Amino acid sequence: MVLKFPDNFLWGSATSAYQVEGGNKLSDWEINPPKRGHGPAGLACDHYNRFEPDFDLLKKLNQNAHRFSIEWAKIEPRQGEFDKIEIEHYRRVLSALKQRGIKTMVTLHHFTLPQWLAEIGGFANNKSIEYFTRYAAKLFGEYQDLIDFWATINEPMVFAGQGYLAKRWLPQKRNIFLYIRVVNNLIRAHQSVYRLFKTFGRDKVLVGIVKHNTYFEPSKNLLDRFIVGLPDWWQNRYFLNKIKNHCDFIGLNYYFHFKIKFPGLIRNENKKVSDMGWELYPEGIYYLLKELKRYNKPVYITENGLADAGDKNREWYIREVLRNVHWATQEGIDVRGYFYWSLMDNFEWADGFGPRFGLIEIDYSTLERKPRPSAYFYSEICKNNQLFVEG
Ligand code: FCB
After folding, report:
1. How many CB atoms lie under 10 A from the CB of residue 323?
2. Which of 167-171, 186-190, 260-264, 306-310 is least confident?
């Protein structure tokens, strides 16, 4: 059976600056990496110097869109000072994509901060809203004709949770008050950039958020159904409810499914897991897409993927996820694109270079790139805008 995707569907993959570029000397993760993590990223994949051949490769793999991020610390190395050389660098990156006919989705904040901002409290400092807006305005002035989709903040709830509750990521705190303050400042930062871009660019400019949602599945009984409501509201809906009038599209990142059975969670029920031990549950994306219907916005799947060094499950997982995405489109959900995470292996935050999420394998001793078999499988889907499934 052939599953045809909507016309003009975007097919791509995603990266983030700190995870692939290398040389992010003024970012907080580089200067002061989390204790017990595996940082800093150092040279990473040296994508900073190799973006041209990397884009040749993604073009060859029939991708027509690319999501990546700009490193704030490179653009604004010291508070209020913008770096001309780095601004030109990202212009070359964007132009290289445009020359290859690739649509661009750019994330303005993907987890890392300039060290100067981290030192004054990052997003826990209310001034961060003004600073983030100033940085965004600068990028808008420079790149408005080169960026098709502006994604303000990557996974705000994850960023706040890992940094201010779980103590895993910077600034490695556990403080519920700071956590809530950061979430609310991220909301305000997003809204502020949205408003500004709309006054600059009117309706032409497309601004959205990248939101990580988890599929919380209740077991059959009533109590569990009731309990599921709380994490679902806080993790999946709170942020979106606050910004629903300040976004042109929703970016959905999907990785997790948890089944709730009082008094706890059942993880990995179906036993199929990635190298990170994350359950592989393709159906979850269907339910999350249906839940987004209430916002009535175009949806892009801005991340979805798995760590799979042996490339054993990747093809299966992509196929099954896309089967579910297609099903959602058939039921009227306006999904307009899919970005696999990630184009290439990269620095997986506190887990370092171990997990292998890439369609393209990186040999870190030579930095050689080698597409995995699943990259060619995905490339056929991208080329034909359709997926072949049995049954
Ligand atoms: C997401 C992040 C991305 C990557 C993947 C595996 O939460 O946005 O940077 O680490 O997980």
Report:
1. 18
2. 260-264
pLDDT of residue 268: 65
Buried b / exposed e over 197-228, threshold 16 CB at 10 Å, is beeeeeeebbbbbbbbbbbbbbeeeeebeebb
Per-residue pLDDT for 269 more than 90? no
Report the greatest alpha carbon distance in the chain.
59
- Distance of CA 349 from the midpoint of ligand 1 (Å): 8
- CA nearest to 216, candidates 203, 205, 229: 229
pLDDT of residue 267: 66
Q: What angle do CA 240, 339, 28 make, to 5 degrees?
A: 70
Tell me the per-residue pLDDT of 187-217, one tens digit each, with 9 for 90 and over: 999 999 999 999 987 778 999 999 999 999 9
Residue to mutate, 274, 341, 347, ligand 1, most ligand atoms under 8 Å from C-beta? 341
The set of protein residues with a Cβ atom below 6 angstroms from ligand 1 is 16, 19, 154-155, 158, 212, 253, 303, 341, 348-349, 357
With residue 188 as reference, give the H or E element that holds it: helix 176-201
User: Could you confirm whether 155 is annotated as catalytic?
Assistant: yes
Domains annotated for the chain, with CATH where assigned, are 2-388 (3.20.20.80)
